[in-house]
Design brief:
The chain is an alpha/beta fold and 228 residues long. It has two domains: 88 residues, Rossmann fold (3-Layer(aba) Sandwich); 132 residues, no CATH class. Strands 1-2-3-4-5 form a five-stranded parallel beta sheet. The longest helix has 17 residues.
C-alpha cells in the first residue's frame, strides 16, 4: 500500500517550511488512477487542514493543485473556494496516436475531452492563467506540440513545460531525447504564446524539470541568457 500522509502531517510540514525555510508557495499533486473521486477526498482534506492549521494568509505565494479532471465542475469550484490559486489537469501529450500508448489511462479513462472540459471551465470562470496543463517536452513532434500548446493558450490556459529526461524506463522502446534544435523550437514556441496571450506561469523560476517560468523570464527579458 502506498503511504498517504494525513492532512495534519501535511499542514505541519507546510507550517515548518514557511516558518523555517521561507517557503511561500505550495503544490498539491493528485494520485488518482481511473477516476477523481478518491483523490477529491484527499485534496479537500489537505486544503481544509492548511486553512485551519496554517492559515491562507500565512501562505504568501500560490497554492497550485494538480488534479485528475473531475466529472463534476462543482469539485473545481470547491478547490478554489478552499484557497487554490491555479489548477492543472495535465494532458502531457497532445498527439492522440502517441497518447494512446504513452498515457493510456488518460487516453482511455479520464479522456482528453474531460481534461479539456475542466481546463476550459476554469479559464472561462476564473480567468486566463488560472488553468494550466503540462506537456512532457520531447515526447512528441514539435508540430503536434505546437497544435496543443496553441489550442490551450488561445483559451487562456497555460501550456506548461516539463522536460523529458530519458533515463530509467524507455518510452515506446526509446530512451533517445530529441536534439537541441527541438528544444530551441519548443522554447521559442512557448515564449511566443506566453507573451501573445499574456499568460505568466507561477513561481519565480522553473521547478525540477519544469521550465515554463524560465521561458517566461527569457521571453520578457530577451537579454537574459540564463533561460533553460
Amino acid at each position: 500500500m502506498p503511504f498517504i500522509p494525513s492532512p495534519q502531517d501535511v499542514a505541519e510540514v507546510v507550517r515548518y517550511a514557511i516558518d523555517k525555510d521561507n517557503v511561500d508557495s505550495i503544490q498539491i499533486t493528485g494520485g488518482s488512477t481511473f477516476e477523481a473521486k478518491h483523490e477529491e477526498g484527499h485534496i479537500t482534506a489537505y486544503m481544509t487542514a492548511l486553512n485551519e492549521q496554517v492559515g491562507r494568509s500565512d501562505i504568501k505565494g500560490e497554492i497550485l493543485l494538480y488534479i485528475t479532471p473531475p466529472e463534476n465542475a462543482d469539485v473545481i469550484d470547491r478547490y478554489f473556494e478552499l484557497g487554490a490559486d491555479r489548477i492543472a489537469c495535465s494532458l502531457e501529450v497532445w498527439d492522440d496516436g502517441l497518447a494512446k500508448y504513452i498515457t493510456p489511462g488518460k487516453y482511455e479513462y479520464t479522456t482528453k475531452k474531460r481534461h479539456l472540459d475542466a481546463l476550459e471551465y476554469i479559464a472561462e470562470k476564473y480567468g486566463p492563467g488560472k488553468a494550466f496543463s503540462y506537456f512532457i517536452i520531447g515526447l512528441e513532434p514539435i508540430e503536434t506540440l505546437k497544435d496543443g500548446a496553441t489550442y490551450l493558450a488561445e483559451r487562456g490556459i497555460i501550456p506548461s513545460a516539463s522536460v523529458w529526461m530519458p533515463f530509467g524506463k524507455p518510452v515506446m522502446g526509446s530512451m533517445k531525447a530529441p536534439d537541441v534544435e527541438y528544444y530551441r523550437q519548443a522554447k521559442e514556441l512557448l515564449a511566443e504564446l506566453y507573451v501573445k496571450y499574456s499568460l505568466e506561469p507561477a513561481g519565480a523560476c522553473g521547478l525540477n524539470v519544469c521550465v515554463e517560468k524560465d521561458i517566461w523570464n527569457w521571453a520578457t527579458n530577451p537579454d537574459n541568457d540564463k533561460c533553460c
